[in-house]
What does this fold into?
Amino acid sequence: MSSPSSLDELIDALRCLPGVGPRSAQRMAYHLLQRDQRGAARLAHAMGRALDVLRHCERCNTFSETDVCARCANPRRDARQLCVVEMPADLAVIEHTHAFDGLYYVLMGRLSPLDGIGPRELKLDKLIARATDGVVEEVILATNFTNEGEATAHTVAELLGARGLKVSRLSRGVPVGGELEHVDAGTVAQALVERRTF
Amino acid sequence: MSSPSSLDELIDALRCLPGVGPRSAQRMAYHLLQRDQRGAARLAHAMGRALDVLRHCERCNTFSETDVCARCANPRRDARQLCVVEMPADLAVIEHTHAFDGLYYVLMGRLSPLDGIGPRELKLDKLIARATDGVVEEVILATNFTNEGEATAHTVAELLGARGLKVSRLSRGVPVGGELEHVDAGTVAQALVERRTF
Ligand SMILES: [Zn+2]
Ligand SMILES: [Zn+2]
It folds into this structure.
């Protein structure tokens, strides 16, 4: 008498998407089944494929289809500078400034004690191993200037500073409380140039 | 140098979801790949399965895994009354009242000229064929009391009335338990017009 189980399953599964509650999961399921079966098939396929082929780059930790991503494998990048960002989108913002030709490390998150994300969950040991490869001389912290991003920068600075690395932070050209993704490239470039020793 | 194509594909595919723009598609993709691969796998599977097995019930047009859904196949329902609703969720609301034991027809939408959804797109001929099966005596219109729902009810009423069927509409009025003071004037006015003999 109730709805078909495959429909209930789909509605329920859609709730794994961030910000999607029961009502909007239902709306999404109806929309996909009723108005966009091609889009739904494409999404199911893209999701399956992404799960199959994506892994984390061994060096920079960002999403990659190969063990080492193309950027990390590029010998023209300056391997002495390592820029630490929270997410791949932040990396893209910095690349877009054309003001940095070093390498990156993508945390894939930030310290967030309230969400149970501490140094272990953020796998900071992987960053430490990467930064202490003997080639990296300076680590530039480009986490967001939010409370969590600042706390993350502080913790990383302590961990890496204790290991004799020069650690710097993007200057506060970035508005306090601002997220890199929402800042114009010129400001980010300036913040990069004026980075200060942590 | 850019993001892996399978990641871009996933982000792009997520945009087929209603209300999901580029920024939130990106956030969803990161979340799924980074924090909820199990949820993502389940979603991809549930979507594939729903696309495979779900069709529209031949009689009531709602989503069903069989040609005729269990409700329509139930001989204990009163086949002389047919309640027309916009979406499966509306059907569920009416079932929940336990005040109706007839059958349903689910439009899977509403007339919406601005979105290019006219009588043809809504497949009103399927409803007409269903309602004129010789068994249905009364069609109860339970579309929403929005502009589009009212226009839909009006059009359906004309089409079915012309074929000699009794057509009724859910009454408008003061909600049960409602205080006049907190009900909008339009509703109170309507309740006055539609007053019934005590
Ligand atoms: Zn890499
Ligand atoms: Zn049915």
User: Anything to note?
Assistant: Residues 78-169 of chain B form a domain with the Dna Topoisomerase Vi A Subunit; Chain: A, domain 2 fold (CATH 3.40.1360.10). Chain B touches chain A through 59 residues (CB under 8 Å). Residues 37-53 of chain B form the longest helix (17 residues).
